[in-house]
Specification:
about 475 residues, twelve-stranded parallel β-sheet, single chain, about 30% helix, alpha/beta
């Protein structure tokens, strides 16, 4: 703070810088010249202005009541900035400000919709109340929203550098914080929103790789703009799907799944992960994925919901007892088609079925020709046919393979044909174009694999006719 570091009823650093005479410090409005306000439940009956102020030590406004405006435009905090338990009755703007360490808004109450703009190493909003909503416009910060009330329309977003606010000195310290790479450190990280009311929250351009959501309320109403920045799946069966940090932690605890899971970017710092915190199991994780999937589907983003559906099914499979029928069916569903989301698995499964069936047809499936066989060789003078016995040998298995493969593929793709087509050479009777299409059996195989890749809830009007 500038020389004469005290706060009058209508004082700001701008008036001090202009050379205006500063009034005598009234009672309960004095702060040390070091720039560290005294802690305590200080009421500010009029507006409080700290525009452009610099706080050299820890600045504490814990328990203060700002009955009107609270101006911190361009303020710089070289240590922590504490507003724990503070009440803002009329404030609609806080910042933009720079906080070298942590901006604490724990248990603060904002009675009006407020816009908070800050560049900080961390922002703590545990049990903070925003009943009318909030716009959190942040840079670099690791954010905690545990038990916060975000029922009103709220936005948490990463923003470009604030104009007329030089963050170069602090940015060097912020950029060295985990996780790498440093060029992405300007993007804020949401570390936790456990037990928070997320009814009105919209997230944009925020790193969610270490975010914990266990216990969050109204998670299906959370809106994530664009592609969520979540961690990719690891392990042997790497599919590249988006995953929650809780799933990474759970798989990391299991020896069979440990490799490739829970990388440093998914691990929260110690201050955001108290020892008393709990991590969910597969059953709870299935519920988290289900709510996130529902939120994406309600936003008409079915492709964006696919990874959450895959995660939900995976957690359902692992939550079921290994001897149960549900576990076996879900495992088979995962193996043959990736829960109807992995077209290559369905295609590979169809090829395996076709080849296996062709092997059966070639060995024991086709009826062997009658042996011996009698064939006509001439006609007698009175017109009677003369037959001669002829030995017929069964074709070898390898010579029957092409025919068996063709017949197997024809049977496997019969479901793709309408009622006019039957199983047989050239598709039986029907339109000429239909017979030509059916003659290309490979088209049917590809079409069946593509059919599996359709979104799960899509169905043509009037149902499907199967012959």
């Amino acid at each position: 703070m500038p020389a004469g570091g005290w706060l009058a009823t209508k004082w700001s650093s701008r008036s001090a810088a202009s050379g205006a005479a500063a009034p005598d410090p009234p009672p309960n409005r004095w702060f040390p010249r070091s720039g560290s306000p005294c802690r305590g439940a200080t009421p500010f009956e009029d507006w409080a202005g700290f525009d452009g102020a610099t706080f050299h030590g820890e600045a504490g406004f814990d328990g203060a009541t700002f009955q009107r405006w609270a101006r911190f435009d361009g303020a710089r905090f070289r240590e922590d900035a504490g507003f724990g338990g503070a009440t803002f009755e009329q404030a609609r703007q806080l910042g933009p400000m720079l906080v070298r360490k942590q901006l604490t808004l724990e248990q603060a109450v904002f009675k009006q919709r407020v816009q908070i703009e800050a560049g900080a190493a961390a922002v703590c909003c545990r049990r903070t109340q925003f009943p009318a909503g909030v716009d959190l416009r942040l840079r670099f910060a690791s954010v905690v929203l545990d038990d916060a009330d975000l029922a009103g329309p709220s936005i948490l977003a990463g923003v470009p550098p604030f104009p007329n606010l030089d963050e170069a000195r602090f940015a060097q310290d912020w950029a060295s914080l985990p996780p790498p790479p440093q060029e992405q450190r300007a993007q804020p990280r949401l570390l936790s929103a456990c037990r928070a009311n997320l009814t009105g929250l919209t997230i944009s351009d925020v790193d969610l790789r270490a975010c914990r959501l266990f216990g969050a309320h109204n998670l299906d109403r959370l809106r994530i703009e664009g592609q969520p920045l979540l961690a990719r799946a690891g392990g042997r069966h790497h599919t590249g799907r988006l995953t929650l940090a809780e799933e990474h932690h759970w798989r990391h605890q299991a020896p069979r799944h440990r490799r490739g899971w829970f990388p440093p970017v998914c691990q929260p710092p110690a201050w955001a992960d108290p020892e008393t915190s709990s991590w969910p199991g597969p059953a709870q994780l299935a519920g988290l994925y289900r709510e996130l999937r529902k939120g994406r589907e309600d936003s008409k983003d079915e492709p964006g919901a696919a990874d959450f559906y895959y995660g939900e099914m995976e957690m359902r499979r692992h939550a079921a007892p290994w001897w149960s029928a549900e576990r076996m069916l879900l495992t088979l569903y995962w193996l043959v088609s990736g829960y109807a989301l992995r077209a290559w698995r369905a295609f590979a499964t169809l090829l395996v079925v076709v080849v296996a069936a062709a092997g059966v047809f070639a060995t024991v499936g086709f009826k062997p020709p009658a042996s011996p066989r009698f064939v006509p060789v001439g006609v007698t003078s009175n017109g009677a046919l003369v037959y001669q016995e002829q030995q017929v040998h069964r074709l070898s298995v390898w010579r029957q393979v092409p025919v068996a493969l063709g017949y197997s593929g024809e049977v496997a793709t019969s479901l793709l044909r309408g009622a006019w087509a039957g199983v047989g050479p050239c598709g039986g009777r029907g339109p000429a174009w239909g017979r030509r299409l059916h003659g290309q059996r490979s088209y049917g195989v590809v079409a069946l694999a593509c059919l599996v890749a359709q979104r799960r809830h899509a169905a043509p009007e009037g149902g499907v006719t199967v012959a």
